[in-house]
Amino acid sequence: MKIIRVHTKSRPSSVCCGAGALDEAINFLQGAQVFIVTDSNVFRLYQTLLAERFPQASVCVLPAGERHKNRRSLFRILDEMLGAQLHRSSVVVALGGGVIGDMAGLAAAVYMRGTRLIQIPTTLLAQVDSSVGGKTAIDYRGVKNMVGAFYQPERVFCDPLFLQTLPNREIRCGLGEIIKTAVLDPQVKDLVVQNFTRLFDFAFLQDLAAECVRFKAHIVERDETETSGLRKCLNLGHTTGHALELLCGRRSHGEYVLIGMWLESKIAEAEGVCSREYAEQIRAMIRLVLPRIPCFANAAEGLQFALLDKKNTSQGMVSMILPKAEGEYVEYVLPAERYGEYLKLLEGEQR
Ligand code: NAD
Ligand code: GLY
Asked: For 10, 57, 129, 234, which has the most beta carbons within 10 A of its beta carbon?
């Protein structure tokens, strides 16, 4: 098992990665009043495990999926927390994917102005990315993660046992954020490229997940609240990914990140931000996970959502993180019209 420390100013935390992490979580929670937030799919799969391992805990079960990442679910969690008479030293346990982690995290941040929080991520995406770093949110009025807070969990426990029930498609989504990290960090890139035949092998995924957490911890420690700009790099592929996610909503977050990175590598190449050779290398990594980039008949309409991206600072301009060279990236701003033209690349047959 690997322990990765996250030395953030607001609250230092640590991430425990590997087999046995769930046992560590149970030890950590000894004696505390525990309130578990999960979704209907995870509850169906792990109901017996929950009853056996957390016999005293209250459990709040929310409907699964991004479309429920909203204020209704947030207030449902808060109502149930109040109903269970939670106090500030009770512990909220986010047991689920990124949707549950973000919502339970936000509920913990605002309930009595802050209760204790731990994350037990159950998807690959949540284990490699969303459970770490303290971003919490709900979507609001068509904007992704519009209402949220930075609120660090005390601990994160990533146990590979949960990955065994994950559908292949959800593994692919987690690989989306892993490929993003590979574009940002040469060490992760080498691991991915040298082991490309093992991307769906759980033993290898465990090592890869820990490397991604190490990289994210390094970024978050230096720019916890995204004020210096460094943390924005974690948004690579997300300007386009979020815009398409809000426009179409049929796929999962990680797949949209892959599609977003594909388009943004094309933009980086066309704008002269990176070489053609490097852009091709990125697209080759994307193809390891998503062999065919889908067509979006109305991709250009994604512009309305890209204009609401939280990175934007001027009206009529769209901000994105573009790859520059190995391990290098830059924040790049395009006039809306030009970005809209690039979105049209997704309307044709791919390439
Ligand atoms: P998700 O939480 O919707 O989980 C995906 C699906 O897998 C759901 O249907 C869920 O019920 C199911 N599931 C969860 N665990 C399972 C298991 N062990 N076995 C079988 N099924 C299981 O989605 P996700 O991909 O985990 O997370 C995406 C969300 O994370 C998005 O809302 C995104 O905005 C957010 N996110 C947040 C951060 C952050 O830093 N806070 C970073 C990246 C993404
Ligand atoms: N996933 C983006 C971040 O954590 O900053």
From this structure: 129
Q: 236-351, what's its fold?
A: Dehydroquinate synthase-like, alpha domain (1.20.1090)
Give this prediction's pTM: 0.96
Q: What is the pLDDT of residues 67-108, one digit of tens each?
A: 999 999 999 999 999 999 999 999 999 999 999 999 999 999
Domain boundaries, the chain: 2-165, 236-351
CA of 273 to the centre of ligand 1 (A): 32
Contacts of 303 (CB under 8 A, 6+ apart): 243, 318, 336, 339, 340, 343
Please give the CATH number for the structural domain made up of 2-165: 3.40.50.1970
Q: How many residues does the chain have?
A: 351
Residues 6+ apart with CB under 8 A from 166: 122, 123, 124
Task: Name the residue with the closest Cα to ligand 2, atom 2.
Answer: 234
- Residue 311: phi and psi, rounded to 5, are -80, -20
Say if ligand 2 is within 6 A of residue 231 CB: yes
Nearest 5 degrees, angle CA 348-CA 307-CA 262?
A: 35
